[in-house]
Amino acid sequence: MWAAGGCCSRQAGESGGGAPAVKTPVKTFQAYLPPAHRTYSCIHCRAHLASHDELISKSFQGSRGRAYLFNSVVNVGCGMAEERVLLTGLHAVADIYCECCKTMLGWKYEHAFESSQKYKEGKFIIELAHMVKENGWD
């Protein structure tokens, strides 16, 4: 599903000689998608989010515009599920966020109350406003 982890800061320059500590951001993603595959990454920090192979549909609407439905994602954290009335009816969804920069990306469908919407359960919505295409999109 999603991997825990994200960016961290490493203390550099720590020595007994009284030199001040310098914070150096180090990207330590839990999952890197294969470099030969087309991928979607966080537009804010470039953490890998999903492979193009996991894309189910481009026909979704997020709170900030168009969104894509994915079968699975990486480097994403998940909040608590809550019931929301969306365009397609009542669903139990959990907000998802980038584990690196903590940007809210979209949501995960935990439960669909209407039988026609059951295919969404366990799937992820990521809004286009938070994604960038990388690797082999020429």
From TrEMBL:
Q: Which Pfam families match?
A: Yippee-Mis18
Q: Which family does it belong to?
A: Belongs to the yippee family.
Q: Where is this region: Disordered?
A: 1-20
Q: Does the keyword Metal-binding apply?
A: yes
Name used for this protein in its record: Protein yippee-like
One GO MF term: metal ion binding
Question: What is the species of this protein?
Answer: Bombyx mori (Silk moth)
| Family annotation (InterPro entries) | Yippee, Yippee/Mis18/Cereblon, Yippee_fam
Task: Work out whether the entry's keyword set contains Zinc.
Answer: yes
Give start and end of each Yippee domain: 38-135
Q: Which domain of life is it from?
A: Eukaryota
Q: Which UniProt keywords apply?
A: Metal-binding, Zinc
At the highest ranks, the source species' classification is: Eukaryota, Metazoa, Ecdysozoa, Arthropoda, Hexapoda
